[in-house]
Specification:
Layout lengths: L3 E8 L4 H13 E10 L6 H16 L1 H6 E8 L2 H5 L25 H16 L3 E3 L15 H15 L4 E3 L7 H23 L11 E2 L2 E2 L5 H15 L1
Parallel strand pairs: 1-2, 1-4, 2-3, 4-5
Antiparallel strand pairs: 6-7
């Protein structure tokens, strides 16, 4: 594969989707940086997982390791201060009257993309890569393709830039995301995702299921579990 010689910045949380996006970027771009956000999330353990994944990539995937650049961890405490989401407060995960799960954090991806764009601008990274998806997802409006495209327009106008926001998982379901991981890194990447990534909203890592660690009941675990089962059946 011919590598793109432009730099990319990946929104990398340490979850399954962002890990696949990181592998996708490392397969495509000569230089890749990462960014994550500490916003008071209940599953803050994902930040520990992401650090371990970044440490393991050069060992398990040496060619990718050569392309892996600076990591940025940004503190965004304002999100948990203004949000009553079940993702930032100790409350039950339910579906609210408008059909959205209470794990929705209003403005989260809008803020994340804005901060990522500012970093990309300073670091001369033209491509911003995120794991947003509207095929198998919880209905978050800021994960929709239209929302991401609108953000790209606004950011480029506001910074007089030509940034490109790429969402390689936008039209993939979770089974197809597992399949993409295999296509990118074969069994070693599948095993890395199973053992090291974190998706569970409750931060549960005491139980190892066939599809990885998690409570098995929150919306994120249900999507991951169903996707893995469909992937294995295929």
């Amino acid at each position: 594969m011919t590598l793109n010689n432009e730099k990319a910045l990946v929104l990398f949380s340490g979850g399954q989707d962002s890990s696949v996006c990181l592998a996708w970027a490392l397969s495509k771009y000569e230089r890749v940086e990462t960014v994550s956000f500490n916003y008071g999330q209940r599953h803050v353990i994902e930040l520990e997982c992401r650090r371990r994944i970044l440490d393991l990539i050069p060992i398990q995937f040496p060619l990718w390791g050569e392309r892996l650049g600076k990591d940025h961890l940004i503190e965004v405490p304002a999100l948990s201060q203004i949000s009553t989401s079940a993702l930032t407060a100790d409350q039950e995960i339910t579906i609210d009257p408008d059909g959205l799960p209470t794990t929705f954090v209003p403005g989260r991806n809008i803020i994340f993309l804005s901060l990522a764009a500012a970093i990309a601008y300073q670091r001369e990274a033209r491509h911003i890569i995120g794991g947003m998806c509207e095929t198998d997802f919880s209905g978050y409006p800021d994960c929709r393709d239209d929302s991401v495209k609108a953000m790209q327009v606004a950011l480029n106008l506001g910074m007089d830039a030509r940034l490109v926001i790429e969402t390689p998982l936008m039209w993939l379901d979770k089974a197809e995301t597992w399949a993409l991981a295999y296509a990118l890194g074969q069994d070693p990447l599948i095993q890395l995702i199973l053992e090291e990534t974190h998706t569970c909203y409750l931060g549960e890592r005491s139980v190892r299921h066939s599809w990885g660690y998690g409570c098995g009941e929150c919306p994120a675990c249900v999507l991951r579990k169903r996707g893995y089962e469909r992937y294995m059946e295929g």
